[in-house]
Give the backbone structure.
Amino acid sequence: MRTLITLEKIIVSPPSDDDKRADDQRIRDALGLEPLDVPLSVLRKIPPHQGSELSCIVGRSRYGNKLIDISAGASYSVALDLGSTNLVAALYDNVSKRVVSEAKLVNPQIKFGSDILTRMHHSMSGKAEEVSQCLMDGVDAVITQLCNDAGIKRHEIHALAAAGNTVMSHYFLGLDVSSIPVSPFVPVVRKPGFFKAADLHIGIHPEALVYVFPNAGIYVGGDIVAGVLASGMYEAAEPCILIDVGTNAEIVIGSRDWMLAGAGAAGPALEEGIAGIGKRAERGIIYDIDIHEQGTECRTFDNAPPEGICGSGMVSLMYEMYRTGIIGSDGRLDAGHNGVDIMNGRNTFTFSCASGNGLVIEQTEIDNFLRSKAAMFTLLLVMLRSVGLRFSDIKKVYVAGALGNGINVRKAAGIGMLPDWPDGRIIPIGNSSLKGALMILKDSSLLEQEDKITDGITYKHMHDDPEFMKEFSGAIFIPHTNPEILKVQ
């Protein structure tokens, strides 16, 4: 296993009357790497005298080897999740082979709209450069945070691997997005590959390798390809499922022999900023909840006082509200129940944990959640049917994104978001986009595997699928108008 970036220490023999090789050839021969690209910026740094130890930063891409720098004492890489809501990054030490810093930042593009479609409309109305630059400002800020936390210099970062959905990848590269939201839904590039940091104006070492994950479809991007890599389902002998719920819900079904991917607008109710109490999964955020006659019991990350609720917590809250009759099968609040009230003309439910202030959820937010859970379940159902599989045929279910942090499987099935899979079959994997990007930094041989994953994915377009439309209406109800459909037989 060879990292994407390595620091190689070599002894370069001095020239003589019998050995008149050029300086760059001496370095190539000492490294034993061919082909090896030596940029002009590195040629200019080759010391005039040889015979001493030389530290070389070498990058390995699918295009060959590249000498990024010489006389460097440290080397780092950055894994970057280009989320439409948050930018999440990890700083990887290429020498000690460990993560030394992590950083999160709200994607500043949110000022152009919380959803991708609104941002694309801004781009198509003459603000494309502004929207793209806004993202890059956020990337610069998150890199600054990583460097400050680890106490390193920017030029010591020699690689960056970025995974995001198709639109985010296009913004990252400064590409036109106008053809993505309209028929026939065609991106500028499917497999972006490697770039030089200086060409993208990223403030790290100018010769650093920047790798952008490929997309498998307009609505199934590099973040999902990274997720397939992180889950390991590409090596599975039997059918598995990857569910990634963020701003959208993306689903991949398959094994080492085949894969089918699809996407739907199922995620917004699970993202922070959509519900007033919605927060990213971190310290003090509720991931599970129980409502009793004696009061409400909340479980938070790090057992800290509750400050909001994440995606899995929303699932748990909806289940408990339904179980206790606070909402009916149609999701409407029961005006006669304790905690149900009208605030500013809107129907609301207020609940309080053992410590902390009361948290309020509105009827419109409940409605949004039910549409989200309906879209997610229907997406699962229709995609499985399209390949002749049943819920019972799936051996492992990998859950990533906003839903994958502390999900209670029983409650998710209880509201009809997931079928009634047994607990052991569902495996939360956290931020699979970031994990996949880190895997590429740690093992450059996975680039070839990742190519096979991308080429092996068939994308099912669900935008106007008639069966999806037909099944969706029944899935809006809790748990479903046909509860038998949720059973795993």
